[in-house]
Design a protein that fits this description.
alpha/beta; about 280 residues; two-stranded antiparallel ribbon; 8-stranded parallel barrel; single chain; globular; binds magnesium ion; binds 3-hydroxy-3-methylglutaryl-coenzyme A
């Protein structure tokens, strides 16, 4: 049941840095992206076209996207609304990412929209992005539980996923935004999603709040998932999810996969160099 290889998507420059209170200078962010690009990862999430007042750390999205293009890497940038998409189009972003919460309270706090208004906006974003030949990633946040509403049902997640599938997302990343999932719910939820949406590409996005993230990764693999988001040095968190901690770390994930004889395509030495740089950058 174990795959020969998996894809790791590095989200450190976006999810990793967005929760950092002190602004990381743009030049340092670029250096981090450059180091990450050397480790042979297929895609890096490098920018977020959100409102600079909502997340000041991501205010230099234009510079990061422009730099990512100069570097020639395949990169992802967050675009929660049409305004964000216009900014991304100007920067020639190859792959966008929208994000909608499975719960009303979180979605309101995060992007100040109801779930249905968000989904409607996403349809417009997808249409325009497709016309520009951009690839589309769609996140479902709070895919297992929510800091405001507690347990999240399969039906809540399915509603958002169905909309993303019907409007043409290229892949859907299910986020354990607040890091409260456990291997059983992960196995059952991904199993059900794969049964209900057999043609859809799903990605698992774990935050390691309860130190269950690696167990959750293995449960996701057993449910047939082969794409994982992770963050160098385990940085990360969502400013609108109180108590949420970093993503599962890229180094931990790579070590786990390599010891399980599952290829990642990642160069361990280059990865370790990037991890040291990230830790020094943030004094961790
Ligand atoms: P809003 O204030 O409701 O927007 O923000 P609005 O449409 O009412 O517009 C107000 C003003 O903002 C207008 O300007 C707009 O043009 C401007 P004015 O006319 O007053 O001068 N505006 C923008 N400016 C720059 N960029 C934009 C933009 N949109 C409108 N994109 C908005 C709505 C969504 C923009 C805001 O709430 C926001 O930026 N939220 C971001 C929240 C965020 O970044 N959260 C973290 C990422 S999600 C996450 O971490 C989860 C994930 O990792 C997966 C997981 O773990 O589950 C992805
Ligand atoms: Mg996240």
């Amino acid at each position: 049941i174990f795959p020969k290889e998996v894809e790791i998507i590095e989200v450190g420059p976006r999810d990793g840095l967005q929760n950092e209170a002190v602004f990381v200078p743009t030049e340092k962010k670029k250096e981090l992206v450059r180091k990450l690009s050397k480790m042979g990862v297929s895609r890096i999430e490098t920018a977020s076209f959100v409102h600079p007042k909502a997340v000041p750390q991501m205010a230099d999205a234009v510079e990061l996207a422009t730099f990512s293009n100069e570097l020639g890497i395949d990169f992802i940038a967050l675009t929660p609304n049409l305004k964000a998409l216009s900014r991304a189009i100007e920067c020639k972003v190859p792959q966008i990412a929208v994000f909608v919460g499975a719960t009303e309270t979180f979605n309101q706090k995060n992007i100040r929209f109801s779930i249905s208004d968000s989904l409607e906006e996403c349809s417009l974003v997808f249409k325009k992005a497709k016309a520009c030949q951009m690839k589309i990633r769609a996140y479902v946040s709070m895919g297992f539980s929510c800091p405001y509403e507690g347990n999240v049902s399969y039906e809540q997640v399915e509603r958002v996923v169905r909309h993303f599938v019907e409007t043409g997302a290229d892949e859907i990343s299910i986020g354990d935004t607040n890091g409260q999932a456990n291997p059983r719910i992960v196995y059952e939820r991904f199993g059900q999603l794969k049964e209900d949406f057999p043609e859809t590409i799903f990605v698992a996005h774990f935050h390691d709040t309860n130190l269950f993230a690696y167990a959750n990764v293995v449960a996701a693999i057993q449910a047939g998932i082969t794409k994982f988001d992770s963050s160098i040095a385990g940085l990360g968190g969502c400013p609108f999810s109180p108590g949420a901690t970093g993503n599962v770390s890229t180094e931990g994930l790579v070590k786990l996969f390599h010891e399980m004889n599952i290829a990642t395509g990642i160069d361990v030495n280059a990865m370790n160099e990037a991890a040291i740089f990230a830790k020094e950058l943030l004094n961790k």
